[in-house]
Amino acid sequence: MSKSFERYQRRKLISSYFSVTLSIALVLLLLGVLGLLVLNTRKLADHFKEQVTLSVFFKDTARQVEIDQLQKSLVMAPYTKNALYVSKEEAAEQHSAEIGENFLEFLGYNPLKNSIDLQLNAAYVSPVQIDSIATDIETREFVEEVSYDRPTIALLTENVQRIGLGILIASGVFTLIAVLLINSSIRLSIYSKRFIIKTMQMVGATKSFIRRPFIWTNIKLGVLGALIALAALYGLLFYLDVNFPDLGLMEDLLTLIAVFASVFVLGVLISGISTFFATQRFLNLRTDDLYY
């Protein structure tokens, strides 16, 4: 009978530890993802901004040497990320591939223009700066027009600012929720041992002596939960880096180290502090209050 009770108690204890560890791991994983999202918001915004393309179309009378000189000057400009020359023949091939038929056979001539596809560095992607760049390029006599989607650029700039602020607010709210969830899990775990705590206190054990094993146990659970969260976070980063290499999420080692270290430290601190206050609460309760 005693062995059966001991096995029951052991299973109950393991179940309690497992639930606390899993809760800590899931919450810390969420915090890690939010931390990476906050730190990489600028990088993600820059990635989308640098996909904006300005198409510089040339007149049919433009000489190749003029086009080459303009391309070289654009490549050397501080606002340029990439400047790719596209001949009218290449443009026709691309357009035919997109529509699935050779439109040149139907028209009998090539209506497209020689052009340069210009991609800008993220810092220069705003309606005002792009208007200025386009105006400057259009001053060349051999340039017919500079085409770009201004409404989309304005919307992108506005939304990037809104999303950045929203992510920051959401991170603060979720961090608070995460702390409360870990605290609740640990309090529930210690609640099941409230009579043991009170018994130890009644036989003369000091508060610090009673708290010490609980704090140490939950710190170890916090460390284990943090390690599980970090492993899952690394797996998520690896998956995103393989499928979306342009984001460069694994390139900034200092940011990764800062996030991983923060997740680990938070796991230890929240577990230790929550355990301290949870045990302190039951130590201060009267014996009759333990039943409610």
Explain what the structure shows.
The chain is of the alpha+beta class. It folds into two domains: 2-45 and 157-291, no CATH class; 53-148, Alpha-Beta Plaits, CATH 3.30.70.3040. It is 72% helix and 8% strand. It has helices at 2-39, 41-49, 64-76, 88-99, 103-107, 127-138, 150-191, 194-202, 207-243, 253-284, and strands spanning 53-58, 80-86, 115-120, 143-147. A four-stranded antiparallel sheet has the order 2-3-1-4. Helix 2 (41-49) runs antiparallel to helix 7 (150-191), helix 7 (150-191) packs parallel to helix 10 and helix 9 (207-243) packs antiparallel against helix 10.
Share of helical residues: over 70%
Strand content: 5-15%
* Average pLDDT rating: 80
Query: Sheet bearing the most strands, described?
Result: 4 strands, antiparallel
How are the strands of the largest sheet arranged?
A: 2-3-1-4
| End-to-end C-alpha gap | 30 Å
Radius of gyration, taken over Cα atoms and rounded to an integer in Å:
31 Å
Let me know the number of strands.
4
